[in-house]
Amino acid sequence: MNLQQDSRQNIEPEHVPLPGHDVPWVVRARQSAFERFAAHGFPTRREEEWKYTDVSAIGKRASLKPAPPDPTSDAAALILFRDSGHLMVFVDGHYSGELSAAGELPAGVRLASLADMLNEAADLPEAFFDQLHEHTIFAALNNAFATGGAVLNLAPGTVLDAPVYLLFIASGQGAAIYPRNIVIAGEGASATVIEHYLGVIDAHNFTDVVTQISLGAGAQLQHCKLVQEGSGAFHVAGIHAEQAADSRFVSHSFVLGGRLTRNDITSSLNEPGCLCTLNGLYLLDGKQHVDHHTRIDHIAPSGISREYYRGIMNGESRGVFNGKLLVHPGAVKTDAHQANHNLLLSRQACVDTKPQLEILADDVKCTHGATVGQLNDDSLFYLRSRGVDAALARSLLIYGFANDIIEKVGVPDLRARIRHLVLERLPQGGQIKVML
Amino acid sequence: MLTIKNLHAQINGKEILRGIDLNIRAGEVHAIMGPNGSGKSTLAQLLAGREGYQVSAGSVDYLGRDLLAMMPEERAREGVFLAFQYPVEIPGVSNALFLKTSLNSIRKHHGLTELDAMDFLHLLRDKMKLVGMDESFLSRAVNEGFSGGEKKRNEILQLAVLEPRLAILDETDSGLDIDALKLIADGINGMRNPERAIVLVTHYQRLLNYIVPDVVHVLSQGRIVKSGGAELALELEQHGYGWVEAEYAARNAAQER
Lengths: 436, 257
Ligand SMILES: Nc1ncnc2c1ncn2[C@@H]1O[C@H](COP(=O)(O)OP(=O)(O)O)[C@@H](O)[C@H]1O
Ligand SMILES: [Mg+2]
Prior knowledge:
- Chain A is of the alpha/beta class.
- Chain A has helices at 8-11, 24-40, 56-59, 114-120, 126-130, 137-145, 377-384, 390-406, 412-424, 429-433; strands spanning 86-91, 94-101, 109-113, 150-154, 164-170, 176-177, 180-185, 190-199, 206-215, 220-228, 234-243, 248-255, 260-269, 275-284, 289-298, 304-313, 318-327, 335-344, 350-359, 365-373.
- Chain A has 2 domains: 3-271, no CATH class; 376-436, no CATH class.
- By secondary structure, chain B is of the alpha/beta class.
- In chain B, the strands form 3 sheets. Chain B has a 6-stranded mixed sheet with strand order 6-9-10-3-11-12, with helices on both faces. A 4-stranded antiparallel sheet of chain B has the order 2-1-4-5, covered by helices on one side.
- Chain A binds chain B through residues 377-379, 381-390, 392-393, 396-397, 399-404, 407, 431-432, 435-436, and chain B through 48-51, 71-73, 75-77, 81-82, 84, 87-93, 97-98, 100-106, 109, 141, 158, 162.
- Adenosine-5'-diphosphate (ADP) binds next to strand 2 and helix 1 of chain B.
């Protein structure tokens, strides 16, 4: 066990005031999760799933103890689009009613902070909080310490037009932040959820977040995640979806900031006719490290999955993509495609990309492709032959490479916002921005 | 406007252009014809500034400047335009953004104000009509998923928007059906003017029925083996390139003796 500075006593959940501390099943769930974490500790690179990502620095942190609420923090200044539907703001993992504006919700839709749900033990199926995903110990740690996050519960047939915008602000230095989000979409319900992680410039917080998603028959969820943590921050996340018949799950993952980010994104297509799309873009510089581990389980027949991930690595950064695709026996007529393309902009940058396909059913169509390359000379010459200088041509090509993924986002505001963020990172991006 | 003297160029040590002499004046239309592999595209790309060619001898003067010493973008800004034989796809960059970036780069170079979104759209609408392109092409990524003919039209759209002084069109006619060919020929004819020179690279005579050149050159194995008037193109159409090459060989042999 490598909790180096905290004594076990100090961080055991029973000694930290956490939401739901009066509710026996919550306390039990936290305690058993903590035991699991304490017994296992942080994963090491000897474990296959963590081969390329070294999390030992997290274990050496001053504290894993959840950050306390800080009423003095000036997080309001960081809110980007206040008028975008249903806004919930969390500062260092704690819900801020003051900064939030949940807006009008249609009948049958409940949107609340996890803390309120745990304290009331209301409306929240026990199983969601108890449920652990065996493939990451970080989920156990989150279960032990979750302080905030959103619970969105959509009754069958309810449609939420405006996006639910969850903004997680890391204000302090070195705080440990444990958000937990739960989305339950009943039969035929539909919604869009945005998770935005924003850290102040040089923050070196540790965020450990879990998002659980349950889609009923025919339900639709578009999930967008944007990581813009501070330059010293660690961000480890799990997004786990369970899909019933004919449901559609679309996930977008954008990582633009943070020192180390690890996203585990999984979906299980449990019943026939599901559609699952996982898109992602990572744009890295300096010593940034971003690791996406995705996993799609085709369990029932006639499922369709699409996966488009792209990476742009500059400086000494490192990207990791591991795309697991499992077609279980009986999942006939599965149609799956996966692509991961990477652009290396410097000699010191690197990427590890690994498709992992296990196909145990007949009559399926599964394709995949992965590339690692540099900017194309023919494209550069084409642009220059039209009067565009070399530096601007390069930025334009990088933008285009990223934009193919950004375009897939179904929220116009967010799409524009991400475009701008990407352009701000490109040497001649400013020139392109004014021409959009 | 453009004077090429004894130009020799190699690709990876293989000599492709073997002594080209060419003089093009403003207001003229030249056709460069020749069999596949004779070096037409090499010449065109070299003039536009593509890297990877070693010029071992000769010179190219463009409006009093050493063209070969200029960067590709500099050449474009000074009015050189190449319509590519194989236009390049640029995923994720819309045709509108591409054209705007290009036009504004050139305008800025000439000290003109950059066009704003409204003015640009007006300009573009007119030009698109000229080449028979639908407005939906503006929001599509540059050449991505375009048919062969659409790519060629897109090149001519760029030509019409950028209004260069020296336009080199590399096989713009290939892949076009007869209606599109006529439309594009009309567009090009409309751009003929005393200040502009146009070079049509082609190996069919077809295009020259619609755009009548002042001079026709035959390129073979990296050399211009014959130059003549518009009627030369018709002769080539009827009798092929063999006789021109034979004539050139005989003339050379006679000189050596
Ligand atoms: N990048 C290259 N490397 C080697 N040889 C080349 C390259 N590009 C062109 N060539 C050769 O140069 C010759 C002329 O090609 P090209 O200029 O494309 O001819 P054309 O346009 O007249 O058909 C051909 O023999 C071709 O194979
Ligand atoms: Mg050619």
